[in-house]
Amino acid sequence: MIHEKGNAILNGMERRFGKLALPQILRWIASFQVLTWALDRFSPNFLEWLAFDKAAILSGQVWRIFTWIFFPRFPSMGSPVFEILFVVIALLFMFFISDSIESQWGEFRVNVYTFTTIVGLSLASLVVPYMSEIGQIMTGIFFSAVFLAFASLFPSQVIHLFAIIPIKAKWLGIANALLLAATVLGSGAAMPYLAFVVLVGLLPYIFVFVPTFATEMRQRSESAVRKHRFEQAVGSLDDAFHTCDSCGATDQSHPDRSFRVTADGEDYCEVCRPPVHSSSES
């Protein structure tokens, strides 16, 4: 019921504001991450102006509320060649995820999902006490929310991990969720605050997919009950009407035999049926 009301609200909003949606919004975010990664190679202090900084935001640098999303999260590979190759592969993979989700939801719903996740993470991080490297953590949570949406929409999509190992998206989604949980549990004294940020960041995912999962589970349960009832009904039709009390043969196992019930209630097949003795005449 909640899921249906949410869809109705989104449909109404799309009719009114659908033209304002930015096409391929996730592609743009990924592209800007690559751009900031490249600019950081020429100006090491450049990223400091994009990072999420609570004190700087409260002092007037309000752009940091949103620019943290462009903070690159590409690991250092040691070799510049391998690092560039990794960035290109990550960008193409993000393009693939973006196109897949947008083909399923459309531009407007992808925009709503993206911006509500970003705004939620920003507000949650402003509320909690200061945490070091919170901006990079927020970026990780955002892309986890995006990938979880992809894995939930396309659970059977095969992804080649490291371009070699084939694995379904649903298993990578589960691994992603476990990694988030491990990050929270390993954050020490900051655990309750980080858990709050993660929860708020995943609220759009929860609102979209938890009702869907609940509906699917209910449908599977109802289907299993119907199947069980059907099997019981079929099984009852297969039960034997006659069972020989002597040899155990039934009218189902030996349909060629005839069966008779004696006066004392015993059931016998024609092979085991005792002979009928007539009374002798004097």
Largest sheet: 2 strands, antiparallel
Report the sheet-strand fraction: under 5%
Alpha-beta content class: mainly alpha
CATH level 1 class label of the largest domain: Mainly Alpha
Notes on the protein architecture:
With 282 residues, the chain is mainly α. Mean pLDDT is 80; it is low at 277-282. The strands form 2 sheets. Strands 1-2 form a two-stranded antiparallel ribbon. Strands 3-4 form a two-stranded antiparallel sheet. The protein has helices at residues 2-17, 25-42, 54-58, 64-67, 80-105, 107-127, 134-153, 169-185, 191-201, 203-238; strands at residues 158-161, 165-168, 259-261, 267-269. Helices cover 62% and strands 5% of the residues. It has 2 domains: 2-221, Up-down Bundle (Rhomboid-like fold); 240-275, no CATH class. Strand 1 (158-161) and strand 2 form a beta hairpin.
List the helices and strands and how they pair.
Elements: H1 2-17, H2 25-42, H3 54-58, H4 64-67, H5 80-105, H6 107-127, H7 134-153, E1 158-161, E2 165-168, H8 169-185, H9 191-201, H10 203-238, E3 259-261, E4 267-269
Antiparallel strand pairs: 1-2, 3-4
